Amino acid sequence: MKEKLVEGYFVKTSDNLIFEVKGVVHPHDRIIAYVRYVPDLDSASSDSSFRKIYDLREREEYLSNGFLGYLWFSKTHGRVLQAVPHKKIVQVLNPIEHMNQIRNDKSALSIATTNLVDLLLDNTGIDRTEIGITGSQLVGVATETSDIDLVVYGESTCRKFYKRLRKKFDKVPRLERYEGELLDAHV
């Protein structure tokens, strides 16, 4: 595998499963990643529809019923982890590349995402090559009510981002803290 896959990336497999990459260190022959989207067999749609699995136990149970090759015992961790063998990966979904692609998309969600990223870039001084979009937008299953899941890459970049945003947060127009009733309504 040539591309370095890290947290925030997703991979699609030859079994039509979509996994979210976890961490930054992986075994030589596979990527530590947890199944997130699976084919939606109940969908009336003729296209390739997916459903999201939230619960970790449900994810493992899904793989236990026909996809055992994605359950792997890690000697390092001393337990079974979900992992995708390199040979099973058919598509890599890169958050930074996708962020650049959606800049041309005219959907309300893509415009909101682009505006938010530009606002954050203007107020933190990080480079646009260090921030990406992950989650449902990266996978291509977002709706107009989907949230915006951003990821910032690089330790020093993240420290700079958080430090500058913390200082400026209350002065940045249109940003509000995700706490209290707003957070409670989402959780």
TrEMBL record:
GO function terms (MF aspect): nucleotidyltransferase activity
Pfam families reported in the protein's UniProt record: NTP_transf_2 (PF01909)
InterPro entries: NT_sf, Polymerase_NTP_transf_dom
All copies of domain Polymerase nucleotidyl transferase, residue ranges: 128-167
Name of this chain's protein: Polymerase nucleotidyl transferase domain-containing protein
The organism's taxonomic lineage, starting at the top: unclassified sequences, metagenomes, ecological metagenomes
